[in-house]
Each structure stands twice: as structure tokens, then as C-alpha cells.
Amino acid sequence: MTTGSKQRMVLFVERSYQQWVVRDPEGNFWLLPVVDNPWDYRQPFSPTPESELEPVPGHYISMLGLPFYTKDEERGVLMK
Predict the structure, then answer these.
(1) Where is mean pLDDT largest: 8-12, 23-27, 42-46, 73-77?
(2) Which domain holds residue 27?
(3) Counted domains in the chain
(4) How confident is residue 46, by pLDDT bands cut at 50, 70 and 90?
(5) Averaged pLDDT score across all residues of the chain
(6) Is residue 1 domain-resident?
(7) 53-57 — which CB contacts under 8 Å span 24+ positions?
(8) 3 found inside a domain
(9) Is 60 a domain residue?
(10) Distance of alpha carbon 16 from its chain centroid, rounded?
(11) Taking the model in full, what pTM does it have?
């Protein structure tokens, strides 16, 4: 029996844009605007070699109200 690992979302800050970026469980990147319910207004994001993505500690995830937030992310258990 083989057990696969489930990829979780990862939250980044994009330093050059000064905005949140999320990698969803499917591996897609999204730029989140600074509005209420940012997930509803997300835009596709394609990281480039010039992107300045910095991982953000898990406790920031809950404040954005993302639809795939779990307690593991709050504790900082993020997939790489």
C-alpha cells in the first residue's frame, strides 16, 4: 500500500509587489489583493526567477480566510 502526501497551501509575501501570494493544494499560484475576502478576488500568478517570494509563518494564514485553511497551517506545518 502506497501513501501519498497531500500538498497543502503555502502563503508567501511577494516582496517586489508587496502582496500576498498563495500556492494552493493543486500547486497553482495566486496573487491576493488587499481587500476583504481576498480569495474571491485572486489573480493567477506565475513566479519568475525575479520573483521575491518569502514564505510566511502559518499563523498568518487564518487571518486571510482562505477556503483550504487547516489547523496544521496555523501551527506552521507547511509543505515545501
Answers:
(1) 42-46
(2) 10-74
(3) 1
(4) very high
(5) 79
(6) no
(7) 53/12, 53/13, 53/14, 53/15, 53/21, 54/12, 54/13, 54/15, 55/10, 55/11, 55/12, 56/11, 56/12, 56/13, 56/20
(8) no
(9) yes
(10) 16
(11) 0.73
DSSP the chain: ---PPPP--EEEEETTTTEEEEE-TTS-EEEEPSSSSGGGG-EE----TT--EEE--GGGGGGGT-TT--HHHHTT----
- Percentage of residues of the chain with pLDDT beyond 70: 75
Residue owning grid cell 509575501: 13
Residue showing cell 502582496: 19
